[in-house]
Write a structure and sequence with these properties.
The chain is 15% helix and 46% strand. It is mainly beta.
Length: 323
């Protein structure tokens, strides 16, 4: 089975033509399935009001589809979010008479510079996305060579007769039926009772799969978005980050002590405060000590997205290395 997850940036009505609506909250999923091939479009429906909505959708993505009807602040901020997250592949659709000549200078040196332009026709775009999904290599061999994995939760609920069900994407490794996992932060023990991929029962799920897990050992009241179900012994929970950051080239001023920020990683978007900051003469490449309001779960050496919600038209500040 091949699966492709697409972050959609653009008008929601356009996304409605790309698949069948499924899970809906501040991010909405549209699914398109053809045989063993599935393409999911994730739409940040509460963006631009809520930056977290954009972060969650882009964080889950294999590729992005950017439908540009206005060259405004939201377009620029979305482009920087995709760049900071390293979503290197995707497509751009231009509408309302916007030309390549107008957009090219705005995406220079960003990941969007590599995206392919498509005609403004939802049917053609949908077929192109399905073609991309068909070319995704099966992740099945991983299950015989990888023995741990991690699923950050994006939705969760109780099902009568089943119990607690969580939805999420396998961000790394492999999860198998009957695996014993930890719910981090906190460390509750969780057992995977069953796995579904696109409503089909499965014995396993590997990196890139969108899954529904029936679990025991944890109740809905114990859960929130961002909790990571994992059996990877390298996983960490961090309350203080003291590390190098890289601010985006459009960021207007140096960070300051006591500045309230958010750190995004996987499906976590955690509030924090800058405790100290220093640099070697380049304020766009500072060393920052940040105290988080709750633990951030991550693998050593991974990357977090720095956001400043009071930044006005630009709230995506840059990236920071996680310890």
């Amino acid at each position: 089975m091949s699966n492709l997850t697409v972050a959609f940036i653009g008008p929601v009505k356009y996304a409605e033509e790309l698949g069948k609506k499924s899970t809906a909250s501040d991010i909405v999923f549209y699914e398109n399935k053809k045989g063993d091939v599935t393409m999911n479009v994730v739409v940040p429906v509460e963006y631009p009001d809520k930056l977290a909505s954009l972060f969650y959708a882009a964080s889950m993505a294999d590729i992005a589809l950017v439908v540009v009807e206005k060259l405004d602040a939201a377009f620029g901020e979305s482009a920087l979010m995709l760049d900071c997250l390293g979503v290197k592949s995707g497509f751009i659709v231009l509408g309302n008479g916007i030309t390549k000549e107008q957009i090219t200078p705005l995406i220079r040196n960003l990941v969007l510079e590599r995206y392919v332009f498509l005609d403004d026709n939802p049917s053609i775009v949908r077929e192109k996305l399905m073609e991309e999904a068909e070319e995704v290599e099966s992740n099945e061999p991983l299950r015989t060579t990888v023995f741990s994995g991690s699923v950050p939760i994006d939705h969760f609920f109780n099902v009568k007769g089943v119990g607690t069900v969580v939805l999420g994407r396998v961000f790394e490794g492999v999860i198998k039926k009957h695996d014993k996992l930890k719910a981090l932060p906190g460390g509750k023990s969780v057992e995977v009772k069953s796995i579904q991929k696109h409503d089909v029962d499965s014995e396993w799920a590997a990196k890139g799969d969108l899954v529904g897990l029936a679990v025991k050992g944890v109740e809905v009241a114990d859960l929130e978005r961002g909790i990571v179900l994992t059996n990877n012994p390298e996983m960490k929970s961090t309350l203080v980050i003291n590390s190098e950051a890289i601010l985006v080239k459009y960021w207007p001023a140096p960070f300051k002590e006591d500045m309230p920020v958010h750190i995004g990683h996987w499906m976590q978007f955690v509030s924090a405060k800058v405790e100290s900051i220093s640099d070697d003469g380049d304020w766009r490449n500072p060393r920052i000590k940040i105290a988080l309001d709750k633990p951030l779960v991550h693998l050593p050496g991974s990357k977090g997205i720095l956001c400043y919600l009071d930044g006005g038209k630009l709230r995506v500040a840059g990236t920071i290395e996680l310890p």
